[in-house]
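Lab meeting, item 3. Inverse folding demo.
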């Protein structure tokens, strides 16, 4: 399993609940299409995070890099329902950071 990590903060004055709803609509749509296996949204609690880390953490699970590439590919044209749902969530955030991790050790 590959896990695509996204950390972000909300732009000032925007609703955390609306962000969660928009993100859910976007990622659940991709999941329903088979473009990802699962996802979760977490939020820093009690300020316990490394210095400078954004408040929200999104983890997107895919079977492999091919599935992740497929999810990116469907967004590339920047048209259609997937793009609209992506923009609804992505347009609310700034201070983005990304990472890609995998389960370890590899399954034999």
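The presenter then showed the designed sequence:
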């Amino acid at each position: 399993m590959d896990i695509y990590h996204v950390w972000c903060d909300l732009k000032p004055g925007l609703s955390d609940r609306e962000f969660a709803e928009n993100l859910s609509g976007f990622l659940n749509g991709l999941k329903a299409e088979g473009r990802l296996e699962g996802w979760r949204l977490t939020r820093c609690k009690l300020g316990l995070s490394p210095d400078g880390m954004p408040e929200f953490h999104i983890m997107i699970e895919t079977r492999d890099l091919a599935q992740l590439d497929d999810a990116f590919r469907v967004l590339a044209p920047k048209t259609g329902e997937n793009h609209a749902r992506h923009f609804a969530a992505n347009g609310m955030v700034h201070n983005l950071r990304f990472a890609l991790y995998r389960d370890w050790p590899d399954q034999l």
